[in-house]
TrEMBL record:
<feature type="transmembrane region" description="Helical">
    <location>
        <begin position="255"/>
        <end position="274"/>
    </location>
</feature>
<dbReference type="InterPro" id="IPR058278">
    <property type="entry name" value="DUF7972"/>
</dbReference>
<keyword id="KW-1133">Transmembrane helix</keyword>
<keyword id="KW-0175">Coiled coil</keyword>
<keyword id="KW-0812">Transmembrane</keyword>
<feature type="transmembrane region" description="Helical">
    <location>
        <begin position="65"/>
        <end position="84"/>
    </location>
</feature>
<protein>
    <recommendedName>
        <fullName>DUF4239 domain-containing protein</fullName>
    </recommendedName>
</protein>
<feature type="transmembrane region" description="Helical">
    <location>
        <begin position="28"/>
        <end position="45"/>
    </location>
</feature>
<keyword id="KW-0472">Membrane</keyword>
<feature type="coiled-coil region">
    <location>
        <begin position="127"/>
        <end position="161"/>
    </location>
</feature>
<dbReference type="Pfam" id="PF25927">
    <property type="entry name" value="DUF7972"/>
</dbReference>
<feature type="transmembrane region" description="Helical">
    <location>
        <begin position="289"/>
        <end position="312"/>
    </location>
</feature>
Length: 339
């Protein structure tokens, strides 16, 4: 399996329908879609010839039993949200010495990056920073290809040419995605996931190890510069991923707090004012009580669905970025000669 094949597979996986739903779809659109599907299933179930809902409510007091359970669930979920907020905010609190140390480490990493990619001052925005870093990767790749023009070993020259083509092609695609990306949206993290730096570090080290005797000192040095530049992408992506997780958890907390009170109000309304005699008649062939109860149920589960769709994205990104550095966890990214 060639590296280009691996990249194509990576692009396919990143653009596959399952991951597109888990990662790319707007969280509110996905939430609305799930809730609508639940609503359709509940309304459709009333047409299956089962016991009519109005009969169940009249004989078993089903609405109070159903919706009273939501009260405790929503209040408990809101308490969990407060705990999540405390955990996220606790990472931002600290004495002045700790904050100064964090600042020093951040500036040190930025300075190391600027020295490696030959930039006077790297951009402060995450998308622009990654863009400049990928520019540096491309520059190192082009320098490596130029150094190999006079290489007599045709096999090595072809390997380097293929490697440079892979690196620059992947970097160009990611840079296109980063141009209009704004942190706070998922676009920055999505673009960062598309650049498989771990594989590129491995390929560069493999070339240097397999052809150490035939490579000139200058070519070895250029390969070293290439690896050093690629190694910066991992910490940068992990840092922005951590910031994005905090951003999303705060958004999740706010969303759940906004939804909790309206949902509790609807649950109270369903318990206090709706019984078997409410809204007699049908609409579109469906008992009006079914329409109302299904809508109430959907509103009741809405905080839980919002929680699910946000956590699904966070968990999916976390799983795809478990290993930082030259480690590849997914079986589909293994090469035949690994081991």
């Amino acid at each position: 399996m060639s590296d280009s094949d691996t990249d194509d597979g990576e692009s396919d996986r990143l653009g596959g329908p399952r991951l597109w739903i888990l990662l790319r779809v707007n969280r509110w659109v996905l939430t609305t879609g799930i809730l609508f599907a639940v609503f359709v299933v509940l309304v459709g179930a009333s047409q299956l010839g089962l016991t009519p809902l109005r009969t169940i409510v009249e004989n078993q007091d089903g609405l109070e039993f159903l919706f009273s359970a939501f009260i405790g669930a929503i209040i408990t979920g809101t308490s969990i949200v407060v705990t999540i907020n405390q955990l996220v905010l606790s990472q931002e609190l600290g004495a002045v010495g700790e904050q100064r140390e964090r600042m020093g480490e951040a500036m040190g990493f930025r300075q190391d990056t600027e020295d490696t990619i030959d930039e006077d001052a790297s951009p402060p925005e995450p998308a622009a920073f990654l863009y400049e870093l990928l520019d540096g990767v491309e520059s190192r790749a082009n320098e490596l290809e130029t150094e190999m023009e006079d290489e007599r070993d045709e096999e090595v020259r072809e390997k380097i040419a293929d490697y440079v083509e892979d690196v620059t092609g992947n970097a160009d695609e990611v840079k296109d995605d980063l141009e209009d990306a704004q942190f706070g949206t998922f676009e920055v993290i999505w673009a960062a996931l598309e650049f498989n730096y771990s594989r590129k570090i491995y390929d560069a080290r493999k070339i240097r190890a397999d052809h150490e005797g035939s490579l000139s000192d200058e070519a070895n040095e250029k390969l070293g510069h290439m690896i050093d530049t690629l190694k910066l992408f991992g910490p940068a992506r992990e840092h922005f991923k951590t910031l994005y997780f905090q951003w999303e958890l705060i958004n999740l907390s706010r969303a759940l707090l906004y939804i909790a009170v309206p949902a509790l109000t609807v649950m109270a309304f369903m318990i206090m004012y709706i019984d078997a005699s409410a809204l007699p008649g049908t609409t579109l062939g469906v008992d009006n009580l079914v329409w109302l109860t299904s809508a109430g149920f959907v509103i009741g589960i809405s905080p839980f669905v919002v929680f699910i769709v946000y956590i699904l994205r966070i968990a999916s990104v976390a799983k795809r970025t478990l290993a930082m550095g030259p480690f590849i966890l997914r079986e589909s990214q293994r090469d035949e000669d690994l081991g």
